[in-house]
Amino acid sequence: MIRLPLLLKAGKNMVRITEQEFRQFADYIKSNYGIYFKDEKKTLIEGRLGNLMSSLNFKSLTEYMHYVKSDKTGQAASVMLNKITTNHTFFMREPAHFQYFKDMVLPYLSKTVRDKDLRIWSAACSSGEEPYTLAMIIDEFFGPAKIGWDTKILATDISQAVLSVAKAGIYSRERIKDLPESWIRRYFKNHDSKNYIISEKIRNEVIFSSINLMDHTFPFRRKMHVIFCRNVMIYFDNETKERLAERLYDITEPGGFLFIGHSESLNRDRTRYKYVMPAVYRKE
User: Fold this and answer.
1) Strands (E), the chain
2) CA 280 → CA 2, 105, 233, 261, distances in Å?
3) What is the pLDDT of residue 10?
4) Cβ neighbours of residue 208 under 8 Å, at least 6 residues apart?
5) For tag attachment on the chain, is the N or C end more exposed, with fewer CB atoms within 10 Å?
6) What is the model's pLDDT at position 76?
7) pLDDT tens, 109-137?
C-alpha cells in the first residue's frame, strides 16, 4: 500500500519549490506512477524532498528532476519514491479477504485449475505481509496434497526499499501478533531476541519483483487466477483507476478474482468485473 507521509520539519537549508515546479512534478508523478498530488500537497513534497535536494547540492526541484530522469539505473527514482511515499501494511489486514480466499477462492481453483499452475499476484506488496499471508493460507489449505502444484506467488512493488525488507522476511513480535499461534510456531523462527523470520519454506513460495502499475504492459506470459491490488487505487484519480482496472481485467483468467481495499471501489457501470462482495470482484 502507498500512504502519503506526515510532513517533516523543514531544515534551514531546505530547497524551496515554486508553484510551477510543483505542478510539473505532480504531473510527472501522476503520469509515471499514478499517484495524484493535489495543490495543497506542495508543502508536504517540499518537506520530503527539500533536505534531500540540499544534501545533493541541487538548488531547485527542476535540477533535481533532471538528475532523476537522466539516471538510467533507476536508483535516483527509487530514492525519490521512497521519500514521497510511505509504505504501510500489516499481517491479516482486512481479514475478510483472506477468509474468502481460503473458504471460496482456493476450493474453486483447486477443482478448476487443471494444470495445477496456480497464478496469484500480490501487487503493491509493500513489506511482504500480504504475499506471505497468502502463502501460509495456501500451504495450510493444500497440506500434503500440495505436491505437484505450482503455487508460487508473484509479489511486486515500485519501491526497492520495501522489496528488500520483504525479501528478508524479518518481523518483530508486535508485527506478527495478529497471526494464529499455530502459524507462528509452524512458519516462523526466532531471528534474534526481538524478531522472527519467515521460514524458508514460505519465503521460497514468494517471488519478489519490481513492477510499476502504470506500465502499459505487464510482463506476464499467462493470465492470473487471483490479483490482490489493495489500498493502491485510493491514491489515483478516477481516470487512472478505471484504466488500471481494465488492464487488470485483461490479465485475469476467466473465473478469476480481483481483491481491492475496503476503502476503494470500482464503478459497477463501467468495469467489466462483476461485483462479488465489498472490495472483491470477479471476471466471468
Assistant:
1) 2-3, 86-87, 120-122, 153-157, 170-172, 188-190, 195-198, 206-210, 224-228, 252-259, 274-277, 280-282
2) 20, 11, 14, 9
3) 41
4) 125, 128, 155, 156, 157, 163, 166, 167
5) C
6) 86
7) 999 999 999 999 999 898 899 999 999 99
pLDDT digits (tens, 9 = 90+) for 194-242: 999 999 999 999 999 999 998 888 999 999 999 999 988 887 888 999 9
- Domain match, 151 and 227 both: yes
Are residue 23 and residue 154 in the same domain, yes or no?
no
- Which parts of the chain sit beneath pLDDT 50? 1-12
Alpha-carbon distance of 284 to 272, in angstroms, equals 9
Q: To which residue does cell 505532480 refer?
A: 26
Number of neighbouring beta carbons within 10 Å of residue 58 = 17
Q: Which of 35, 55, 87 is the last residue of a domain?
A: 87
Whether 161 and 218 share a structural domain: yes
Specify whether 55 is located in the same domain as 33.
yes
Largest CA distance in the chain: 63
Whether residue 137 is found in the same domain as residue 213: yes
Classify strands 153-157 and 120-122 as parallel, antiparallel or unpaired: parallel
Q: Provide the pLDDT for residue 222.
A: 96
User: Residue 179 falls within a domain, yes or no?
Assistant: no
Domain edge (last residue) among 87, 113, 142: 87
Is the domain of 113 the same as that of 62? no
Give me the pLDDT at residue 5, please: 42
Bridge partner residues of 224 (DSSP) = 252
Q: Which cell is 128 given?
A: 511482504
Tell me the CATH number at 209.
3.40.50.150
CA distance 190 to 33: 37
Q: What is the pLDDT of residue 37?
A: 81
Give the pLDDT score at 141.
97
What is the structure's pLDDT at 202?
97
How large is the angle between the packed helices 75-84 and 61-70, nearest 10 degrees? Answer: 130
